[in-house]
Amino acid sequence: MDIHGETAFVTGGSVGIGRRISLELASHGITVVVADLEESARQETVAEIEAAGGSATETHLDLTDPESVSAAIETARDQVGQLDILVNNAGIAGPTAPIEDVSLEEWDETLSVNLRGPFLCTKAVLEEMKNREYGRIINISSASGKRVVPERSPYTSSKAGILGLTRTAAAEGGPHGVTANAICPGSVEGPRIEAVIDKEAVTSEKSREQIVAEKEGKTLTHSFVTPKDVAQTVSYLCSDAADRITGQALNVSGGKVTY
User: Fold this and answer.
1) Options 134, 155, 236, 259, the catalytic residue
2) Does residue 134 carry a catalytic annotation?
3) What is the pTM for the complete model shown?
4) What is the pLDDT of residues 81-96, one digit of tens each?
5) What is the tally of structural domains in the chain?
6) Is residue 182 part of a domain?
7) Rg value, the chain, Cα
């Protein structure tokens, strides 16, 4: 695949899916700005990219703080110049509880990270991309943003909101050479799904093994998605093969969601 852009800003780019996305884009010759909270994790990811022959830098990013978002974008521009690709990956799982037991603080925190943060990042780069008549915006939503998931109201609401943001960015950027797409992963192997399983085990009184079997059984492949699956889809959407793909919500779910 030929990826036109030269630079990418990846939120949550040093852990989990984000780390895999950073490594994947760097393997295609993209200079990656790893934007995340933990300095040591950012530095480790940059070192891994450089050890593999890629190019990367890092910056602190707190998506709950608008000033931090602005500062991170400006730092990235100082480090690598224009930003060709934005990957809004960072997110939190939020609480696992019935709506009546979700606190306002939990709701606000989840929406702040998962929806307001991507809005702020998109707002910070879209005008520049439109002026250059090139850009790729990839938002990591979730299969849970498309389907019914009891006791996950903040998370599912935020991920459904990402789909609306994606379509609007696609409509506004389309005439100017900017595409915007969302990826909707199913359950992805890693610490986040492990934490969700642990919470469900407490609230449902089921064993972890039962919960894992149920979640895998809801897919057509009877397996969880891997971070690599998501990262390779990001690369595809950034490539010339996807020049006419925009405003879409692509499922990477092993068939957990088929619409």
Assistant:
1) 155
2) no
3) 0.94
4) 999 999 999 999 999 8
5) 1
6) yes
7) 18
